[in-house]
Design a protein that fits this description.
It is built from 13 helices and 21 strands. With 472 residues, it is an alpha/beta fold. The chain folds into three domains: 119 residues, ATPase, nucleotide binding domain (Nucleotidyltransferase, domain 5, 2-Layer Sandwich); 200 residues; 140 residues. The longest helix is centred in the middle third of the chain and has 20 residues. The protein is globular and about 75 Å long.
Length: 472
């Protein structure tokens, strides 16, 4: 890419067991062949060591979270500066705490509008884990279908990809921290609702403070490994049972596979798997106060979970924070239609429709009807990278007719995300060359993503950051 504009990207990941931060520097520019704007040459400037996500027994520990955020911002050198873009993801058991909103508030106080904080977004987490762990690997093996299992403390997020693109993803409550132990022993100190349900399902009678026996531990691990094997095998019947259904948040729908899958792992359990494969010894019993070590060992003992091509991911399992920092944001092209930049940033805009540029009148009218019902603003994603002038003019004139009819208030934002490099052209036609009283924004050169919400940041040297979440 041709570029001379360095930017900073920040990612914050808060999970069931650990939390971490990553700061990268990259450049914005146009590709020398395609001419498309994008982020290139990412270079990691700072990567924190994972720390235990701070809980205080009754939710998230707000005091410790405040200290943790301040430490990260100081150590990475960002200080009071705002990054160009980035994201924070709160997942698993952390996202299920009653005071999770306090964490997003703390993030907003320190980072402001440059960062998207998304709590418990399972589709996004699965996609990010694949991109962070396997994007380069998948492109290097373009004909191999890779299923990445992101296994943490509270959830397993599977994502199937081919040639760098995610084809299917899911989320299941399979993880190492549904039972918390005194480190060095199997003395039970706490458990989640799913952990309690599985104990009851297996007929394991144990109370807090008591030690679980070796047979009981093996039964818990055996059920979780069977669940992972069902995911890999496409065995939907396993999750149709009452206990299986309880552990399924988003089902994984695998297509018909033409060849054996290559399995990769990420998350805390994935890190342990790759550390062992590189010859490092296993940590001591329940070092992390959960079953992560035991689950990693049980996975490696499964013939189903170790079959197929053995590919090594570039991050050795430490994926989500990489995907979050380097892949959660797109940048617009430079042909923006942005007559009222002061309206930015716009947060939590629902993407109410994904439409081709030559959509029929009924589809366009239905999308606009949905958009006008949200006074805070809404977004349409317009698909098609090759847009002829006649197509753009026809679409713009139809949009202008709707805006002229007063369907939208003068202060109500309507955002059009355009794949084609034609933002100004479409914006001029849709606004009747600026004569219509409307808050219309057209942001071009944005690849299509099947997401539910979008966050659009402030302009930076003629481009704006666009972050997606709520991925399907």
């Amino acid at each position: 890419m041709d570029s001379a504009r360095p930017i900073h990207l920040l990612g914050l990941d808060f999970g069931s067991t650990t939390s971490s931060a990553l700061l990268a520097e990259a450049r914005i520019g146009s590709h020398s062949v395609s001419g498309r704007m994008g982020i290139a040459e990412p270079r990691v400037l700072y990567r924190s060591e994972p720390v235990f996500t701070p809980f205080d027994g009754d939710g998230l520990d707000e005091t410790r979270l405040r200290e943790l955020l301040d430490d990260w911002l100081r150590d990475c050198g960002l200080g009071d500066q705002q990054p160009f873009a980035g994201a924070a993801l709160v997942t698993g058991l952390a996202a299920r705490q009653h005071n999770v909103a306090a964490l997003t508030r703390l993030i907003g106080e320190r980072i402001g509008d440059s960062l998207v904080a998304a709590a418990d977004d399972p589709g996004l987490e699965s996609w990010l884990a694949f991109m962070g762990n396997c994007a380069l690997l998948s492109r290097a093996h373009p004909d191999t279908q890779i299923l990445n299992l992101d296994i943490g403390g509270g959830t397993t997020n599977p994502a199937l990809g081919l040639n760098g693109n995610v084809l299917a993803c899911g989320c299941h409550f399979i993880g190492a921290r549904h039972w918390r132990f005194e480190p060095g022993s199997y003395r039970l100190l706490g458990l989640s609702e799913h952990g309690r349900a599985l104990l009851e399902h297996l007929g394991i009678d144990s109370s807090l403070g008591e030690h679980l026996g070796a047979r009981d531990i093996q039964r818990l691990l055996g059920w979780q490994v069977s669940a992972l094997e069902a995911l890999v095998s496409g065995d939907t019947a396993f999750f149709a049972t009452p206990i299986g259904h309880l552990h399924q948040q988003v089902p994984l729908h695998l297509p018909v596979l033409q060849q054996p899958l290559a399995l990769t792992f990420s998350g805390g359990v994935g890190e342990l798997i790759y550390r062992h494969r590189e010859g490092l010894p296993w940590p001591a019993t329940t070092t992390f106060g959960d079953l992560g070590i035991d689950l990693a060992r049980a996975i490696l003992a499964s013939s189903i979970l170790t079959q197929g091509p053995q590919l090594l991911p570039q991050t050795r399992g430490r994926a989500t924070v990489y995907g979050l920092t380097l892949h959660s944001c797109e940048v617009s092209g430079s042909s923006l239609y942005l007559p009222a930049a002061e309206v930015l940033p716009l947060r939590d805009l629902p993407i109410v429709a994904h439409l081709p540029l030559d959509c029929d009148d009924s589809a366009l009218q239905n999308a606009l009807d949905l958009a006008r019902r949200r006074p805070q603003g809404a977004c349409l994603q317009l698909l098609g990278a090759d847009a002829g002038l006649a197509t753009l003019r026809h679409l713009g004139q139809r949009l202008a007719t709707a805006l002229r009819a007063g369907l939208f208030g003068a202060e109500q934002p309507l955002v059009l995300l355009l794949e084609a490099n034609a933002g100004k052209t479409l914006g001029h036609y849709a606004s009747d060359w600026g004569r219509l009283p409307c808050r219309l924004l057209v942001i071009d050169e944005i690849p299509a993503r099947h997401a539910q919400f979008v966050h659009i940041g402030r302009p930076h040297q003629q481009v704006v950051p666009v972050s997606f979440f709520g991925l399907d």
